[in-house]
Amino acid sequence: MVQATALPRNDSGIETVIGILKQRFADRLQTGESIRQQHGHTTTWINNQPPDAVVFPRSTEEVSEIVKACAAHKVPVIPFGTGTSLEGHVNAPAGGISVDLSQMNRILAVNAEDLDCVVQPGVTREDLNTHLRDQGLFFPIDPGANASLGGMAATRASGTNAVRYGTMKDNILGLEAVMPDGQIIRTGTRARKSSAGYDLTRLLIGAEGTLGIITEITLRLHGIPEAISSARCSFPSVDAACRAVMMTIQYGVPVARIELLDERSVGAANAYSKLSLPETPLLLLEFHGSEAGVVEQAETFGAIAEEFGGTDFAATTSTEERSKLWQARHDMYWASLQLRPGAQGISTDVCVPISRLAECVTSAQAKTAELGLLAPIVGHVGDGNFHTLLLIDTENADEVSKAEEFVGWLNDLAISMEGTCTGEHGIGQGKKPYLERELGPAVRYMRAIKAALDPDDIMNPGKIV
Amino acid sequence: MVQATALPRNDSGIETVIGILKQRFADRLQTGESIRQQHGHTTTWINNQPPDAVVFPRSTEEVSEIVKACAAHKVPVIPFGTGTSLEGHVNAPAGGISVDLSQMNRILAVNAEDLDCVVQPGVTREDLNTHLRDQGLFFPIDPGANASLGGMAATRASGTNAVRYGTMKDNILGLEAVMPDGQIIRTGTRARKSSAGYDLTRLLIGAEGTLGIITEITLRLHGIPEAISSARCSFPSVDAACRAVMMTIQYGVPVARIELLDERSVGAANAYSKLSLPETPLLLLEFHGSEAGVVEQAETFGAIAEEFGGTDFAATTSTEERSKLWQARHDMYWASLQLRPGAQGISTDVCVPISRLAECVTSAQAKTAELGLLAPIVGHVGDGNFHTLLLIDTENADEVSKAEEFVGWLNDLAISMEGTCTGEHGIGQGKKPYLERELGPAVRYMRAIKAALDPDDIMNPGKIV
């Protein structure tokens, strides 16, 4: 395990607040060990730092009450969505109150004519899309896990569709949030664009709950495309596949998804999802548009792929085949774990300019080989973002140390290539040292903002800055 | 004229700083009356509040030196691009130093493979597009005026292409900025997405120079589409035109531009640009895509338009016809002024959810008629944003008062419709009262951020908050 630093605790304040909240929330305030453990971070190699209590509010006003109580007694508040974050975001290094937003899961409005909707933060993306389907609408951001939309906003999540539809920051019109003093604010309207003052919407998106708790989100929606088709194509090398991606993007093909699996990931997918793909680097694509449009997009891509030595190109509009392929992509995490049963998967998240992607992926493969680490790679390559999944025994100090060496080396490499240490997972506890290396003196101004809005550092302390 | 409040001056500090800068910048520090007047605001009805001096830096380091000198003596710093802003953004209500960035006009890098470029803030959008053309690339944001990219970033500008390509906030990867203490920072990398810490990029975009001076911009570029076509269609009413827009967007037609001209604007365009369009509400469209794609988009739109009573539908791929149509659209400001020679044009900028657009435009027409104001309307209707151009004699107190009444009434109407008082022009001095009405307690946190980053309020004081 990687040890996250514990921070000084305010025991008497915490005790007082738990008393107040117990009175107010009765059974919706829980202090049992297992529920507390569950609300400390579990999907990472960072050690669990459980909160002292977990509270389940059902309204913005209740969140405000909780925050006001915590603010009065300088007690940490840690917002919790579904717990799928990867960098220790929900850990409680100074203890405090985990605010579990899963009961704030109502879809408050769907404005089909305006292609927007208003949701509470506990709504998951799958719930939302199920709700929208009958109206011919969908919300495109898909980070893989069935995360809550509040959590996705807080980490500036993206995923496979971002190459076409952007990230959370591009698909949120406005937020309602409870600020560190308990005040409820709205950061935007339902207008599709605005130049009204500082962009507090984008400031809270990606702030990982360190500046306030998101209690309502106004999302942009999209019409379900008339036609959807998918394609796959094998390449002789990662380099060839990346060059094909670059040309496809430059050519303006509006691909909805363009994903890379390296040879090891393809092997894992073949075994887990009973496929028989050639075990060389693979691109998986999805096209959205009119009937004629998706055919044209697939043809254009096919021609480009051929130029770069692509083989076994296959495009399909069959829903079944498409689902099978994308299910395999979504299952990559589980498929990869099967390469080494019992191991834990630790995911990197660098994102580089697309012209540097081939070099970055190839270097990562060479480095893991050199360190003797098993590490399949998948990537949202249209954005230059890829994940190396390190399969390690987290109880083996030597492996952990090699994995840490690799993560640091890769983050530094990405930064040296004018890229970022995190394309979509966020900073949390795990990437704090790299934020400074990436953005240097800018971090000082982040700290100034944090200190101005949350002078007692009660909102998700120990994360980002 | 509308009187902007003057703020207390720090005369001795200003004098000292002018001395220091004169020594350092020689002829690049100007204090002549006409150049100072020119750098106070002129394209609005707000009175001119000239700075005490204008300085022309040529590098980020020079900007940093200027800001450090001003910070040391608590002297206001007002960044200046091309002076095309509309809400008094470049006025100097407390005097101080205007930092004219027009000599920082180099295109530092074009990374064609990554579809990005790095520019200094004084580069104008037309200069950039001229530079990019040979490489098959373009930068889509087009606010009409040939504004500087730094100014466009500072006001979160958009314009006709935003319905497809988004606004400045969606097309900037990262910024370099000089902060209020003179420190130079970078807010992002060239990665296409990132979850690394607070989004200082988006915080500075739209901050109108009140939190720092943008000294370098990394922009997203797009490939020039294989085919571009345009279309126009006349409608029996604003309502019918807006309904056609709504259906087009909902249907997922990826229109690049969809602009409304009301009957009065069409009349003005006919007279000024020697056209013979039917004098009823008109939609102008542009489609980007493949050869087949743009034909299909135009056909789909044509069918939708017909459903809503559209007539005289004409689509063309001829560059000449297209240019003529869009030139007429770009010349609307001048065409409108000809409706009342000698009058000044004062533009509103509300943006509402598209389902409320028809009602909002129709109400605006009725209200100007009631007040006896001549006011043609054009709109970026795909986004729900429109401009009423009030043609008034700014020396006539009664007209000014009626115009002020209208502006206030319209801003309040838009806010009541879950919209914003400013879609793209910004707050500046002119819209400060409406920011509070629109976002309420959120403004308190904007003030806290301002106070944290710029404790002496030297960066463009008197704007936004």
TrEMBL record, chains A, B:
Keywords: FAD, Flavoprotein, Oxidoreductase, Transit peptide. Its EC number is 1.1.2.4. GO terms for biological process: lactate catabolic process. Residues 47-224 form the FAD-binding PCMH-type domain. Pfam families: FAD-oxidase_C, FAD_binding_4. Its cofactor is FAD. It is an enzyme of class 1 (oxidoreductase). Gene3D superfamilies: 3.30.465.10, 3.30.70.2740, Vanillyl-alcohol Oxidase, Chain A, domain 4 (1.10.45.10). InterPro entries: FAD-bd_oxidored_4_C (IPR004113), FAD-bd_PCMH (IPR016166), FAD-bd_PCMH-like_sf (IPR036318), FAD-bd_PCMH_sub2 (IPR016169), FAD-linked_Oxase-like_C (IPR016164), Oxid_FAD_bind_N (IPR006094), Vanillyl_alc_oxidase_C-sub2 (IPR016171). GO terms for molecular function: D-lactate dehydrogenase (cytochrome) activity; D-lactate dehydrogenase (NAD+) activity; FAD binding. PROSITE patterns: FAD_PCMH. Belongs to the FAD-binding oxidoreductase/transferase type 4 family. This is D-lactate dehydrogenase (cytochrome).
